[in-house]
Specification:
14 strands, alpha/beta, three-stranded antiparallel β-sheet, eight-stranded parallel barrel, binds zinc ion, binds 3-methyl-2-oxobutanoic acid, 4 domains
Length: 524
């Protein structure tokens, strides 16, 4: 079945599945649901919610996304991944069946190197296994996607034979993955063009592609495939994913929009939500994009050289091929003051793509008033950092009441910290510690108060906007019992931002360990 609109490129977002497979990632169920809501607002056509058989948490996230996002008006299709075996397919179906528009996604190798090294038998046996899996899945669901894994390195004739057999068996989408990011644009485009020409029944399926970025070619390869007739692309926000990642959603969407006259193609994405979505994914994963990242990097619209600045002042079009507004890049002018009032604050957040629940909104408003008091100019970018901080996805057991540090050129940095324990409000938790630096001292003091052995695996801090009164945004990732938990904090004081980020990661640990104890003697 060819796509309904031949000039539309359908966007399949796999941030929550392939993106989440990136090393060191750990989104909790609430965070996945939050991101899925944002993807739906962004206007993607398909959300791959996860790989349900891989863990109970992933299953729960897929099920909640199907029920809470998949049932909204105009919701995207909800899909999830299965290997070509009944138990995986059963798990996917159980997880996504409550979404009115759903699809089962099956993956099975097609390259000889995969077939041999994974001990999958002969090519014929793999083919039969794929056919059986599709027939099994079609008993439940009218929409089944088949991905011949490592197609980029497969024998072409066998790939096309596989595609034909899977469509014959009932696959409604054929997704061609360049799993290892090995192919070159003209090669991958040629492969898709040949597939369109040589596979007899290709008109009965949607042709999709899924490109990895090992050689930095994921977006170029996806574009070459589109040029050769593919009308669905699998991609992720910020290009996150296995190893070097997947094709970046924001780049693909903006290429199609910016060069629409030449390409004659479009997507259904609301491009003004690209930057806020990127910010949300960065905050929740703790994985920040580089400043020169196309579309959503901090410098993507910054003109530094005098010649460029002069040109832009005369006419933006001299050096800009798209506007920051088009992609929702935060405005750096003053946007709000406390006098603007709650209504204007909520309205601006909505314009920036945020729909906060009442309690999160109340916290964000309070935080805004505090920030506006400290900072002369509150920008959209400040608001984004503040919302990422306040729209928390787990109940906050521990909140930071006081941070005091002593550091400088002599002596070891020391910190005093006071926490409020929501489960034991009668006790005040206060302790002090030294560390290699002030942030280390703060984290050590917090760790002494909270009996949850964690290892800090990653810590970043960055200024949200320019200027001496800039907000600092801190992200941490901690390991607890083999799992990674991320935390985010924002404040005009980077030590406080770091302490908040550490607390938010520990709150996520606490949310999954209901009976966390507080060490004896640490209460004051
Ligand atoms: O890279 C890959 O081959 C995949 C498939 C599941 C599509 O992620
Ligand atoms: Zn992949």
């Amino acid at each position: 079945m060819a796509p309904a609109d031949p000039n539309r490129v359908y966007i399949f977002d796999t941030t929550l599945r392939d993106g989440e497979q990136a090393p060191g990632f750990a989104l909790n169920v609430e965070e996945k649901v939050e991101i899925a809501h944002q993807l739906a607002r962004l206007g993607v056509d398909v959300i791959e919610a996860g790989f349900p058989i891989s863990s109970p948490g992933d299953f729960a996230a897929c099920q909640r996304i199907a029920r809470e996002v998949g049932t909204l008006d105009g919701a995207p299709v909800i899909t999830a991944l299965a290997r070509a075996v009944p138990k995986d397919i059963d798990a996917v179906w159980e997880a996504i069946r409550d979404a009115p528009r759903n699809q089962i996604h099956i993956v099975l190798s097609v390259s000889d190197i995969h077939i041999e090294k994974k001990g999958l038998g002969t090519r014929q046996q793999v083919l039969e296994k794929g056919v059986a899996a599709i027939e099994y899945a079609r008993q439940f669901c009218d929409h089944v996607e088949y991905s011949p894994e490592d197609a980029g390195r497969a024998d072409r004739a066998y790939l096309y034979e596989t595609v034909e057999a899977m469509i014959e068996a009932g696959a409604t989408v054929i997704n061609v993955p360049d799993t290892t990011g090995y192919t070159l644009p003209h090669e991958f485009g040629g492969m898709i063009g040949d597939l369109m020409r040589h596979v007899r029944n290709v008109g009965n399926a949607i042709v999709s592609v899924h490109c990895h970025n090992d050689l930095g070619l994921a977006v170029a390869n996806s574009l070459a495939a589109i040029d050769n007739g593919a009308r669905r692309v699998e991609c992720t926000i910020n290009g996150i994913g296995e190893r070097a990642g997947n094709a970046s959603l924001e780049e693909l969407v903006m290429i199609l929009r910016t060069r629409e006259k030449l390409l004659g193609l479009h997507t259904g994405v609301n491009t003004r939500l690209l930057a806020p979505t990127s910010q949300l994914v960065q905050a929740r994963t703790g994985m920040h994009v580089q400043a020169n990242k196309a579309i959503v990097g901090a410098n993507a619209f910054a003109h530094a050289s005098g010649i460029h600045q002069d040109g832009v002042l005369k006419d933006k079009l001299t050096y800009e091929i798209m506007t920051p507004e088009e992609v929702g890049v935060a405005d750096t002018r003053i946007v709000l003051s406390p006098r603007s009032g709650r209504h204007a604050f909520r309205h601006r957040l909505q314009e920036l793509g945020y729909e906060l629940a009442d309690d999160a909104f109340a916290r964000a408003w309070e935080a805004f008033l505090v920030l506006a008091d400290k900072k002369k100019e509150v920008t959209d970018r400040d608001l984004q950092a503040l919302v990422a901080d306040e729209a928390r996805t787990v109940p906050e057991r521990f909140t930071l009441e006081l941070v005091q540090v002593a550091c400088g050129t002599s002596g070891r940095p020391s910190a005093t910290v006071r926490l409020h324990d929501g489960e034991r409000p009668d006790r005040v938790l206060e302790d002090a510690a030294v560390g290699d630096g002030p942030v280390d001292a703060v984290c050590n003091a917090i760790a002494r108060l909270v009996d949850m052995p964690t290892v800090l695996v990653d810590f970043t801090v960055r200024a949200v906007t320019g200027g001496l009164d800039a907000m600092g945004e801190a992200s941490v990732r901690v390991r607890h019992e083999g799992r990674i938990f991320s935390g985010h904090g924002a404040d005009t004081d980077i030590i406080v931002a770091s302490a908040k980020a550490y607390c938010s990661a520990l709150n996520k640990v606490a949310a999954e360990r209901p009976a966390v104890s507080v060490p004896a003697g640490s209460g004051v």
